[in-house]
């Protein structure tokens, strides 16, 4: 089981340096594609034939005459893009270009260029001409620029001018033909309308004769008939009388229901223009006041009082008579208004009947007359339209299309544009090269960064090994590559769960990932630190460890496991005093499962007691079962992953196989890192490499004896540590 599981890394965001790293790594692809595209573009550009361009500009206007008609304002405003776009298509239409082809005899001329024998058809020539033609608007104006491309500069100018001339003639001819067709249509419509007017006039005369209608009668009828005036006047009187009758009836009805006292109070307000009634009422009021005044001083039988009472009675009788006279007058007015209203209603009814009879007699005449007037108006309109179109037809229209610039022969070819094509090739080459590099990087699922390892395998990266690492046994402890293995050694020591774990194997998913080199150099670093180390070449399929030690592989592990030799007989020493080596030996074909035997387990237990650390080389774990067996029997397992070699799925499967058999995978080693290309890994070894380079240069300035003493002192310090505890303490402080 794993001792350590890497925490889930935070979500990474791509930085500009990430893109730059891909460019640097894939620079070979980018440069190859870039050069291929640029060279191809340059070669093709210089192989293309020269093409000349001639252009003519024409000013186009909408359909209008050179001289505006009476009442017609000259139009000025922004150009209409739809109109110009329509004219673009007209210029390039078959109708226009077929005439150009015919007038310039392009069928026969281009047949000599494109055919060995025979003649081009007009349709074929049209397609060729249209490919050479470019029509565009000139800088937001009503001017159209016609460009023609050809290998012959004179031909290009001739065709451009001819296209402009044919287009101008076609516009003028089309407008004249449209005017002629319009005039013919107006003439025919006018003739029909005039015939219709003559026919209606004959029918109108026949109706006058049949109904005995005279012009005087028509004049009087047109000004309004007597019956209609009578009806209007009589109806107005009837309405006035009816209003008066209603008003008098309402007044009479209100007065009839009142008593004498109320009548005395109401009538003076209604009839203020009745002086007799007002005077009688005033006398009655005065008499009553006088009676009241005398009653206060005189007795009832006094002659004055009696005289006043007699006067009051007489005045009251006069008031009553006046009131009765007013009511009687109102009643008589009601009767009079009713009789007048009846008479007026009869007159209105009779006048309406007379007017209806007269209108019926003249209706057919006036309907036919109105129809004749409408047709006559239509005939007059057509007559004026004919005169206008005839006059408009005679006005010149050369301003519809005006050639402002004639086409001239080009001074230099416009195609191919060598600088533009090469610049375009450079841009396309870069874009395609970088795009292909990123696409290849996207398809590459191998391990690229430490984050990739920790995210996919959920295991820590204990060491990063650079490229071109040789044997540390030959290079010595001062090798610039040794520090990467020292860092790996230190991380292994701090990562293991128990200090008694001293048997180590390194596995890999596939062949060629640097597993054996990593194991050998790691063992050398442990041995240089003063630890007693044994390297066992347990890769019985393709043993290679004996090549590092430069010894024979004749006798080794297989001889011991098969009981042919003792352990002391198969273990060999090396140039490093604390480093021993057990070769693989020759594997008989009948002993393929020898690593899973009891003898192998006994061997592991024996070497654990004799040595501080024991390293077992193994074959690729995805190929054979030996690596899985070793991972389950040793204390510690490491997995080597070569940078950008195998897919991540393969490395994940290798890690899972170690975990399934109970192996203790402490971490991952990234191998074969190109520090010069990938700056993400430079800090893992660049610092140490520079440090040792400067350290060596500083030693050269010292005396020879002092240098040797310093080196011996360092070596002696390492040897004094014995088991390497002192070195681990030193590295721990540095780390």
Could you outline the blueprint of secondary structure elements for this entry?
Elements: H1 16-25, H2 27-47, E1 52-60, H3 81-91, H4 94-104, H5 106-114, H6 122-132, E2 133-137, E3 143-150, H7 153-211, H8 215-222, H9 226-256, H10 260-270, H11 275-295, H12 303-394, E4 401-405, H13 418-443, H14 450-457, E5 461-466, H15 472-475, H16 482-495, E6 503-508, H17 515-528, E7 533-537, H18 545-549, H19 557-561, H20 567-570, E8 572-573, E9 579-582, H21 598-610, E10 613-617, H22 626-633, E11 636-642, H23 648-660, E12 665-673, H24 682-700, H25 704-721, H26 725-734
Parallel strand pairs: 5-12, 6-10, 6-11, 7-9, 7-10, 11-12
Antiparallel strand pairs: 1-3, 1-4, 2-3, 8-9
Helix pairs in contact: 2-13, 4-6, 4-7, 7-12, 9-12, 11-12, 16-17
Features:
single chain; 735 residues; alpha/beta; Rossmann fold; 8-stranded mixed beta sheet; 4-stranded antiparallel beta sheet; disordered N terminus; disordered C terminus
Q: What features would you describe in this structure?
A:
The chain is an alpha/beta fold and 735 residues long. Among the domains are: 57 residues, no CATH class; 173 residues; 273 residues, P-loop containing nucleotide triphosphate hydrolases (Rossmann fold). It is 62% helix and 10% strand. It has 26 helices and 12 strands. It has an 8-stranded mixed sheet, with helices on both faces. Strands 2-3-1-4 form a 4-stranded antiparallel sheet. α2 runs antiparallel to α13, α11 packs antiparallel against α12 and α16 packs across α17. The chain is elongated, with a radius of gyration of 64 Å.
């Amino acid at each position: 089981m794993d001792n350590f599981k890497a925490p889930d890394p935070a979500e990474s965001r791509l930085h500009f340096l990430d893109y730059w790293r891909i460019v640097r790594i894939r620079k070979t692809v980018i440069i190859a594609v870039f050069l291929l595209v640029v060279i191809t573009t340059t070669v093709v550009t210089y192989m293309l034939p020269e093409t000349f361009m001639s252009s003519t500009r024409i000013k186009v206007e909408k359909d209008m005459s050179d001289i505006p008609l009476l009442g017609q304002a000259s139009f000025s405003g922004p150009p209409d893009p739809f109109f110009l776009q329509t004219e673009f298509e007209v210029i390039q239409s078959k109708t226009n270009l077929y005439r150009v082809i015919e007038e310039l005899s392009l069928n026969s001329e281009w047949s000599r260029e494109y055919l060995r024998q025979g003649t081009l058809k007009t349709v074929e020539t049209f397609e060729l001409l249209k490919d050479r033609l470019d029509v565009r608007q000139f800088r937001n104006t009503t001017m159209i620029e016609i460009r023609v491309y050809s290998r012959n500069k004179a031909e290009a100018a001739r065709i451009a001018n001819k296209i402009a001339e044919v287009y101008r003639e076609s516009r003028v001819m089309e407008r004249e033909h449209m005017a002629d067709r319009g005039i013919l249509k107006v003439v025919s419509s006018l003739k029909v309308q005039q015939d219709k007017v003559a026919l209606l006039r004959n029918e109108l005369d026949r109706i006058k004769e049949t109904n005995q209608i005279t012009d005087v009668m028509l004049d009087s009828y047109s000004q309004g008939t007597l019956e209609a005036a009578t009806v209007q006047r009589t109806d107005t009187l009837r309405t006035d009388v009816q209003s008066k009758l209603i008003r008098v009836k309402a007044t009479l009805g209100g007065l009839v229901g009142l008593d004498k006292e109320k009548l005395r109070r109401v009538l003076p307000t209604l009839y203020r223009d009745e002086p007799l009634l007002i005077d009688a009422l005033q006398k009655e009021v005065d008499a009553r006041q006088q009676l009241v005044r005398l009653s206060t001083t005189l007795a009832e039988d006094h002659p004055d009082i009696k005289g006043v009472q007699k006067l009051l009675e007489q005045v009251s009788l006069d008031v009553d008579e006046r009131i009765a006279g007013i009511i009687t007058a109102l009643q008589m007015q009601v009767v009079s208004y009713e009789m007048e209203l009846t008479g007026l209603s009869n007159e209105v009814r009779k006048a309406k009947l007379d007017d209806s009879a007269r209108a019926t007699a003249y209706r057919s005449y006036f309907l036919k007359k109105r129809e004749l007037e409408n047709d006559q108006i239509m005939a007059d309109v057509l007559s004026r339209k004919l005169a206008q179109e005839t006059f408009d037809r005679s006005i010149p229209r050369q301003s519809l299309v005006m050639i402002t610039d004639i086409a001239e022969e080009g001074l230099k070819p416009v195609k191919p544009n060598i600088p533009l094509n090469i610049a375009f090739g450079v841009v396309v080459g870069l874009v395609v090269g970088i795009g292909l590099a990123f696409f290849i990087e996207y398809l590459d699922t191998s391990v690229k960064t430490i984050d990739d390892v920790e995210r996919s395998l959920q295991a820590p990266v204990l060491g990063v090994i650079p490229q071109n690492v040789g044997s540390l046994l030959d290079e010595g402890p001062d090798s610039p590559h040794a520090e990467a293995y020292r860092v790996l050694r230190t991380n292994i020591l701090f990562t293991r769960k128990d200090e008694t774990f001293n048997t180590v194997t390194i596995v890999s998913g596939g062949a060629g990932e640097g597993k054996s080199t990593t194991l050998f150099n790691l063992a050398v670093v442990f041995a240089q630190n003063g630890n007693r180390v044994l390297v066992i070449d347990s890769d019985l399929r393709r043993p290679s460890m004996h090549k590092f030690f430069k010894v024979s592989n004749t006798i080794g592990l297989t001889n011991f496991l098969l009981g042919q030799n003792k352990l002391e007989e198969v273990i060999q020493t090396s140039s490093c005093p604390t480093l021993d080596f057990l070769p693989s030996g020759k594997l008989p074909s009948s002993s393929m499962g020898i690593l899973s035997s009891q003898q192998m387990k006994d061997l592991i237990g024996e070497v654990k007691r004799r040595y501080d650390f024991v390293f077992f080389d193994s074959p690729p774990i995805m190929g054979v079962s030996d690596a899985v067996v070793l991972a389950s029997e040793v204390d510690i397992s490491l997995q080597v992953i070569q940078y950008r070699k195998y897919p991540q799925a393969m490395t994940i499967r290798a890690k899972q196989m170690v975990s399934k058999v109970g192996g203790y995978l402490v971490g991952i080693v990234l191998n074969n890192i190109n520090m010069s290309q990938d700056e993400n890994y430079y800090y893992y070894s660049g610092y140490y490499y520079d440090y040792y380079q400067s350290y060596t240069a500083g030693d050269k300035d010292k005396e020879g004896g002092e240098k040797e003493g310093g080196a011996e002192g360092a070596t002696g310090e390492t040897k004094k540590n014995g088991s390497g505890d002192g070195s681990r303490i030193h590295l721990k402080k540095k780390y």
